[in-house]
Amino acid sequence: MNKKIISTLLLIILIISISAGSCHASASAKVFSSSKSSYYGECAAYAQSGLRTLGYSCTAVTGAITRDSMLAWIGNTGNGYAMYVHTLGGSGYFNDYYGYSIDSSMISGYWDFVYIDSSQSAATSALANAFHTTGYTNKCFLGWSNNVTTANSKTFNYYFWLECVGTSSIRTAALNAAASVAGTGTAPIRLYGSTTYTGAAR
Amino acid sequence: MNKKTKILLGCSSVALLSMLTFAYATSSNQATIDADTNSNISQMSLNKSYEILDTLNSETAITNSKTAFDKLENQNYFIIENNDYTIKLDTNNSLKGIYSKEISTVATSSNLSKENAQEYICAKYNELNLPSQYELSYIEKYDDIIWQANFEKNYNGIYNKYESVKIFFIPDTDEIIALSVFNEPTTSSEVSISQSEAIQVASQELNIDSNDIVSVNLEMEKANNYYDSSNTDTSVHPTWKIQTTNDTFIFVDANTSNIIGGDEINE
Fold it and tell me: Under a CB-based contact definition with an 8 Å cutoff, are residues B209 and B203 in contact?
């Protein structure tokens, strides 16, 4: 009798463990937000919320973010498939808090969704190609084709992450959010990769 | 029931409770936009939405309606959706935004001329009964297929982007992708100080070397607390916008000569 009860209980525990594993086996995402930029706290919080809406298990590093910590995530061999970085940068590179740059030569892996929120991050396809987000049906890269101010970036991120993602493709969500930033040339968002991918976690 | 069984039962309960707690914590973390899906959207709001959807050649079957609070603008909006669009109305039922749920065209380039795109968007602007006092200030291709147009209020040659309509559209397929209406009037349209006086103010008050100034433009800008954390003014002012070599902007009120805020480029 006792053996039967014990077997049943062990089975229940096994089922619980398996279901717990499957509930949280969704792809992971990481947010990096540098305090060199104003509104870094707000942008990090918006992105975390948006990535969770997309089904990612998400963690964030804010403040004095380092190149090593970002490269460690970029080089992860686990379940990390998405990344948002709010920082300073330029065409084909982005910086850590201390001004050390990451360029396309340092990037590896096949990513589902990457958004580098620094000026001119999408001025060329260099970063998008380096993350291998181009040429696939379910991958995309988001960035700025030109300079963007911190205030306009914050406004864009509020609408993009909190109102738009999860309701359409990343492309449409980005355009809807860009329309919510007043003025011409204020939110020069550019997408590389799939125009129909919703950003949903695998 | 023996001791082993009791221990196992206890462990199972703890595991189950932990899972439920974790699941609740994860789900409660996601809600950041306050939305009341049970709110009553008035018939007037629905009628307004029907008109807009009809103008967009979209079916008028509403799939969802709710009230949502916009924390950036600190106000409530009515959100009304069908399968194609999300319509955003303010509490006076004035149009705040039209946002497509998906871009339907699979074309990759627009073949229309700028004149034809302008003709299309001006006609659509009138059909949607958008503010007649705003004038077309910008129209260009945003990418190979999508165009962008801005209609803004003109104050003696200074456009106010905060009294404007910003539109992304595809004229080739008669498709409005995204449209936002901004309606924040300026506190003044007077320009009492010159560009050189504005530079002098910035130099004196913020120790800016005139050699470090990259550009100076007269624009409408919102005050903020960039240089003064105690400032709570967020209204629109005629502004000398001074850009410096370290990628920062200084906003000097073109009427009062006060420094009313600033900004910086993420570069």
Answer: yes
CB contact under 8 A, A16 and B19: yes
One DSSP character per residue, A38-83 reads TTHHHHHHHHHHHHHHTT-EEEEEEES--HHHHHHHHT--SSEEEE
- Helix, strand, coil content of chain A in percent (nearest 5): 40, 20, 40
CB-nearest to A20 from B19, B101, B178 is: B19
Tell me which chain A residues have a C-beta less than 8 angstroms from the C-beta of B4: 2, 6
Residue A76, both tokens: 């992860």
At which residue do the structure tokens 């050649």 appear? B57
Q: Are the beta carbons of A2 and B249 separated by less than 8 Å? A: no
What the block records as the tokens of B27 is 């789900």
Average pLDDT score over residue span B230-239: 97
Would an 8 Å CB–CB cutoff place B130 in contact with chain A?
Answer: no
Q: What is the mean pLDDT of residues B79-100?
A: 97
Closest CA to A88 of A133, A38, A145: A38
- pLDDT value, residue B105: 83
Could you give the ipTM of this predicted complex? 0.87
Closest CA to A93 of A85, A84, A102: A102
Contact B218, B202 (CB under 8 A): no
Query: Least CA distance to B73: which residue of chain A?
Result: A155
- Touching check for A59 and chain B: CB below 8 Å? no
Question: Can you count the helices (H) and strands (E) in chain A?
Answer: 6, 9
Distance CA A115, CA A94 (A): 11
Statement: the pTM of the whole predicted model exceeds 0.90: no
Cβ contacts of B86 on chain A, cutoff 8 Å: 167
C-alpha dist (Å) from residue B227 to A169, B168, B261: 38, 34, 6
Work out the pLDDT band at B219, boundaries 50, 70, 90: very high
Strand order in the sheet with A113-117: A57-63, A28-34, A80-86, A113-117, A140-144, A189-193
The span from the CA of A62 to the CA of B220, in Å, is 33
CA distance A131 to B13: 44
Among B9, B180, B263, select the one facing A9 at the smallest CB separation. Answer: B9
Per CB-CB distance under 8 Å, the chain A contacts of B15 are 13, 16-17, 20
Assign domain A27-193 to its CATH architecture: 3-Layer(aba) Sandwich (3.40)
From chain A, the residues in CB contact with B101 under 8 A are 167-168, 172
Of A170, A92, A93, A95, the C-alpha closest to A124 is A92
Q: CA A125 from chain center: how many Å?
A: 17
